[in-house]
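Hi R.,

Here's the chain you asked about this morning:
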Amino acid sequence: MTETEIRLFFENYGASFLKTGIEIAQFYNAPCITARQGAVRLNGSREDVQAFFGEVLRRYREQGSTQGEMRQFAWVALGSNAIAATITWAYKDAAGRVLWELTFTYNLCKGPEGWKILLQTQHDAA
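And here is the predicted structure, written out as tokens:
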């Protein structure tokens, strides 16, 4: 996977947050692991992944976020079938004001369905 392809993957991933938890879940392997705010969660099935991101999306909307923007992007290959990408996202309201920023590291693996996120780790504040 080239840097251009990885960036496109995450641009499309970011755009899925304008849709539904079902759309977001398509970027994830099932099962997958999410680690956020000190809580590690195994999403064991496609339905678990969809439900988890449906709830994440609901909370983002409640906080006023309607769009996201990639602010920082770095990646490293982990052999031929895996990568790690670290991205800082700016979460914005409808007027384009930044409400908050979060950084995540995503571990992607290439499988029968193509590239999927296997592990998402939120960089919690120190």
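One quick note: Residues 46-62 form the longest helix (17 residues).

Cheers,
M.
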